[in-house]
Amino acid sequence: MSPATATTEEKQTPHDLTGVSNPSSITGKLSTWIHDTTISSIPDDVVRRAKYLILDGIACGLVAAHLPWSEVAARAIFDMEPEGQCTIIGWGGSKKLSPLAASILNSTFIQGFELDDYHSTAPLHSCSILLPALFAAAEAETSRVFSGQDYLKAFIVGCEVGPRVGLALHGADLLSRGWHSGAVQGPSASAAAVASLLDLSPGYIESALGIACTQAGGLMSAQFGSMAKRMQHGFASRNGLFAALLAKEGYTGIQEVYETPYGGFLSMFSEGVTNFSPKSLPDELISGLGEKWELHGIRVKLHAAMAALHGTIDCIEKLQREHAQLFAAENLRNIEAITTQHSKPAFEHGGWTAPANKPLSSTAAQMSIQYAAAAQLVDHEVLMAQFGADRLNRTLLRELMAKITPTHNPELDSDRRKGWRTVVAVRFVGGETVVAQVEGPKGIIPPATDEDIVNKWRMLVRTCLTRRGGIRSRSVC
């Protein structure tokens, strides 16, 4: 194509992207807010909590950097990608990759053991999306020096955008329909954060969001045993970073990407919605921006499993405390049946029945209500050790799993807060039945404290870090 016949889009220079396409649109207002937000405009309590979330995310990356599936991913990416300038968590200075490759691998580590944060009403794992993209962007921009405040501001911006994208699609409804919600919401969060770090103008940010959204996707069937489940937030982290770096150079993206009717983000990802009218809520993207901070909805996990399993674990733990003799080890085979009740997203995410004749993988176990309940019954905890290969398919544990029936209770679907309520009933031989209920698992109601996060950090990194801050051998991590 000659310059004379180039389209308007192809003739655009970076200067044409300074302003958004439509300042009054949802996308325009969001892009402008991302640009205008400064560290001084963010409340002190939000900034403080962000520091603790970052600490938790780094701990999750360190502890998972040398798990078997993490090393498979690392070997593959080291083989296929040339050396670059960006640091790989847990690998010291021995390995560096390009920004895009580093972001996907570091995210895979942070998401590597289901220990990382999640948003309580619009599910996604913010640290596994944002930290890798921001680390990579900072190391890629060799001509600039970023301050800690620059990084914090950008991280907080990403923490605001990601959940709002989910809320515009009715929160956990994406999960109910089989989408990996974090992989759908994540590219927007990553692009927003990197655009904030690079101080892009609103028009460039609109392009970054438009490029990010057209890369969104992720199938929840990955939870049934594939290693790819660990990497899907990495796709989102990489794709948002890629979008922001493209937009930085003046490459244009979809305008008004969220609200465009034909082929727009919300119109397409709301296809299949049957429980809500309207199918999407575009105003959720900008409602309360700068006043209501979604970062406060980010929760820190205190069990090493998918968040929807935590209520079941806490119910079993409560029964073990209240009926110690009944749940003593010698009585576990006297359990006749266990029924658990959940909201629709929790049930459809974790309520699947594990095949009796098929060994469980670590990934599948961390997504199974049956496994979480059985592991708590047998081991009185659900931490990293419970998902080791030597623990997954123990005879007593698999016998107990066969007696556990997760169910969907529609009464728990009525509002977002009630969606965390879990009920567990255990019936013993002879008919004695005991019941426990929790309104929300530890870390949700109430949220983990700053002290909880520091204690979790110490518990996780003591196996991976030397006293001088070095990385221990791969076999330990």
UniProtKB/TrEMBL annotation:
Example GO molecular function: lyase activity
Family: Belongs to the PrpD family.
Domain MmgE/PrpD N-terminal: start-end pairs: 29-271
InterPro entries, sorted: MmgE/PrpD_sf, MmgE/PrpD_sf_1, MmgE_PrpD, MmgE_PrpD_C, MmgE_PrpD_N
SUPFAM superfamilies hit by this protein: 2-methylcitrate dehydratase PrpD
Domain of life: Eukaryota
Native source species: Cladophialophora psammophila CBS 110553
Protein's recorded name: Uncharacterized protein
